[in-house]
Amino acid sequence: MRISRTWSITLFLPFLICFILFLVLPLLYGLYISMHSWSVFGGNGGFVGLDNYTAILTPGNIYSNAFYLGLKNTLIFVAISVIPLVIISLGLALLVDSIPDKLKVYFRTIFFISYAVSVTAVSAIFKWLFTGNGGYVNNVLNTMGFSSINWLNEQPYAWVAILIATIWWTIGFNMILFINALDEVDQTMYEAASLDGANWWKKFSYITFPSIKGVFVFLTIVSVIASFNLYGQTLLITAGGPTQSTQSLIMIIQQMVFTQNNLGVGSAMAIVMGLIMVIIVATQYFYSFRNE
Amino acid sequence: MKKSKSKTILVVAVASLIALLFLLPLIFMIFTSFKALGEAMSSSALFPKLWTAENYASIFGISAEVPILRWLINTGIVTVGGTALVVFVDVLAAYSLARLNLPWKSFFLTVVVSALTIPTIITLFPMFYLFRQYELIDTFAPLMLVYSANTMGVFLIYSFLRGFPKDLEEAAVIDGATLWQILRFVVFPAIRPVVATLSVLTFLTIYNDFLWPSVVTSSDEMKTVTLGVANLVQGANFVNPGKMMAATVVATMPALIIFVAANKYFVRSVVSSGIK
């Protein structure tokens, strides 16, 4: 098409400006701040090189203690959440996929609906479902003759409550992507497999799974990233407790910046966290596609 | 695959059971909001024995301690403004990348894709500090502007345009249409489903965001409804589940309604087009 270069730049320009202002600039500024002693309310207190990073990573001081605590808790959550988030959503997608088309739409909407609920609302609901005294789950347990469980103030129940809330909240998005992927699997291959007498599991492992592997890897990576960003649920449901065991890395960074008024260390923590995420995601990606 | 009828019935029955279980938290939210304090704290039944609207009255009433109407209005302004900005900026950029001879095109594409991996926590606090320096904390500016750097939308529309034939646009060029006419009458109608998807996803992102608004608002009057309710949830004296669920219903319903209404657009095809 003969549309001038000027026009193509003009159309791209608004996005470029937003991108620079709200991504590139803050990114560079964050790097800059992380190498300074910097408080939110006092401003720049001078260049300190990599001191903030050393403080976070050298064991035994208050900064590294906080950082490792948050990192440990976050990694625990990643470890317990990613597998159910991917496997359950795949199971749901396979189930919905085998429903007749006319009804499929309704089920898809129902399982996707929690995607429209905010973390605030999710937390409010599950907080009152799991509250020890007067919470709905314990009321039901009592009626059935069981004793109450101290869901939010005792481990591992606190993680269980947060995990259930998170799965309920985010499973629909993963499921929709799996359903779309399943829709595109070549149906004639199933017919051929049926003629050869292949059972369900054989069809799944030789036809379905290889066809949706790309989406599977993508969703695993997305789930790792999402679980790393754990914040709202632990802040609102358990407030980081019991005894700081659900205090996530983002909660720690947030406190470092606002409660401790240390933007320099907080920024350094955010950058280290970002690097850890990139390394994990890149490793996952590399191993998933190594054989191809 | 051929399926016997009994097998289909079994599948639907299992799916219905799971669906019911899945809807339980929402059902709990709605019914609890109509229970009085005593019943809400002790009941193990979902349905209220005595229906009451007092929880809603206490939120909306004149003596209510929280400006929830103001929060809803704020949310309206921020989500509509923010979503319009994202859609405007992303559609133009994606069109330029997919169809026009933009200089350094492949460089920009690489940047757009790699930016997807940058965790938001890295830019969050520097951005807060920048807004603070320009004294824009506690205004609408930070609440709606920052989402415009989201590269997901550019990528989504770009991928859609790549799979869309150029014929109509080329015919329009030959007929002497201007760029504006092409965008308005040829491109935009064609990409409407993906624009709708992007709009709803962006709308929900802004509507439901919690961390960023909690950082850049300080007064009660400037809160969004999601943030306002979050503060209620955290508040130590908010110990009435019925009241808490009423606030949550008010905060959740607008997004739920819009989501269900727009659901048909991304039920199929488009959400996945970006990741293949």
From TrEMBL, chain A:
Query: Topology in the membrane?
Result: Multi-pass membrane protein
Can you give the residue ranges of the ABC transmembrane type-1 domain?
71-284
Instruction: Kindly list the residue ranges recorded as spanning the membrane.
Output: 12-32, 75-96, 105-130, 157-179, 212-231, 265-287
For this protein, the record's InterPro entries field holds: ABC_transporter_permease, MetI-like, MetI-like_sf
Q: Which domain of life is it from?
A: Bacteria
* UniProt keyword annotations, A-Z: Cell membrane, Membrane, Transmembrane, Transmembrane helix, Transport
Keyword Transmembrane helix assigned to the entry: answer is yes
Q: What are the subcellular locations of this protein?
A: Cell membrane
The text of the family note is: Belongs to the binding-protein-dependent transport system permease family.
Q: What is this protein called?
A: Sugar ABC transporter permease
From TrEMBL, chain B:
The UniProt record lists the ABC transmembrane type-1 domain at: 72-262
- SUPFAM superfamilies listed in its UniProt record: MetI-like
Q: Where in the cell is it found?
A: Cell membrane
> Acetylation as a keyword?
no
Keyword list (alphabetical) reads: Cell membrane, Membrane, Transmembrane, Transmembrane helix, Transport
What InterPro entries does the annotation carry?
Answer: MetI-like, MetI-like_sf
Its domain of life?
A: Bacteria
What protein name is recorded for this chain? Carbohydrate ABC transporter permease
- Species of the source: Planococcus shixiaomingii
